[in-house]
Amino acid sequence: MGEPRWLNETEMQAWAGFLEASDLLNRLVELHLREAGGVTRVQYEILHRLNESPESLRMTELAALMVCSPSGLNYQVGQLVKSGLVRRDPDPSDERGILISLTEQGRAVLLAAAPGHVATIRAGLIDLLSEQQVAQLASIMKVARDHLRSLVPTAPSRRAVDKRS
Amino acid sequence: MGEPRWLNETEMQAWAGFLEASDLLNRLVELHLREAGGVTRVQYEILHRLNESPESLRMTELAALMVCSPSGLNYQVGQLVKSGLVRRDPDPSDERGILISLTEQGRAVLLAAAPGHVATIRAGLIDLLSEQQVAQLASIMKVARDHLRSLVPTAPSRRAVDKRS
DNA sequence: TGTTCTTGTTTCGAATTCGAAGCAACGTAG
DNA sequence: CTACGTTGCTTCGAATTCGAAACAAGAACA
Predict the structure, then answer these.
(1) Where are the domains of chain A?
(2) Are strands A98-102 and A86-90 parallel, antiparallel or unpaired?
């Protein structure tokens, strides 16, 4: 490979800014969620996904919607079960599958935490930007997300152990 | 507080996209760095900061430049010392202070990892965007970063333990 | 029907992160 | 000069995350 194309000033600012802003935002959201609802960002996201989907979700489906390893997801679901916010049921159609669904308490916790969560997101990002900038950000992130989704493995790649005989 | 101002469609896309894209990018960068240079993203950042600054940095200064707790930084610096990429020296002007500086090997590792790192950043974000979008992103992230910096505590706040006697 | 491959989830150990607490050196006020 | 609050770093235990391996149940196929 030829000599690398280094980042120019603007590109550097975009990257460094993005990195630091996302770290700080994560920190902020985590902080507020904990002192408000007593849940993690990941846990909140699990509750949110479950609430959004009409049916209960299997571990695999849930994992596909989120960015974390199967084992990481399993751990957090376990925590939520312990707190009584989520239920694990066997999938009648597939003995292997596990169906995850919100309990009443889980839905209540989500609804209670949501307003504060949205306020945090506004205070930390959305309300800092003009309407136009929000649209730009949405558009930029759509490109990045779509591309990264196909580029970054979240599950352990079985293909790595692929044997071509 | 009145009823919450929920996010509209575009705002939601901006937020969700940002969150997921940053998670995926982190993952991608971490992955590539590990298999290339054998360092973590945080470790890379430490090396990078040290290389950028003309003088060696104190722990506190380094912590201020990054987004991580003092203890987290201490751990990673410890790892880097163990690998011989970084040196800890006492600060002659202040017995408490510790000066961190790159070793020759540390600089070498950084320089070796840099091209691949930049390539990853390009492949995962920068090269997906138009020149205009990169400028927009840089501008947006500057606003967010500056604001978040003053909003999010990275060090344990001593003020919390403030005694009002 | 067995055999073998694949898929879905869980367990395990290691690495990283945090906040709180601990300790040591600084600086200041009496 | 001594006491006290402050600052800088480290240690500690707990929580979270990951990848690899284990396990169990479908599916494909001879």
Answers:
(1) 22-127
(2) antiparallel
Q: What is the pLDDT of residues A109-159, one digit of tens each?
A: 999 999 999 999 999 999 999 999 999 999 999 999 999 998 888 776 654
Q: B117 with B44: CB under 8 angstroms?
A: yes
pLDDT, tens digit, 9 for 90 and up, residues B56-85: 999 999 999 999 999 999 999 999 999 999
> Domain A22-127 classified CATH 3.40.50.1820?
no
Residues by Cβ under 7 A, strand C: A 27, 31, 58-60, 63, 70-71, 74-75, 77-78, 88, 91, 94, 96-98, 158; B 40, 42, 67-73, 75-76, 79, 94-96, 156, 160
Question: A 115-144 residues with CB below 8 A of B?
Answer: 115, 118-119, 121-126, 128-129, 133-144
Nearest partner of B52 among B65, B40, B64, judged by Cα: B65
- Look up the CATH number of domain B21-121: 1.10.10.10
- B19/C5 CA-to-C1' distance in Å: 37
Least Cα distance to B32 among B122, B117, B127 occurs for: B117
Q: What is the pLDDT of residues B13-69, one digit of tens each?
A: 999 999 999 999 999 999 999 888 889 999 999 999 999 999 999 999 999 999 999
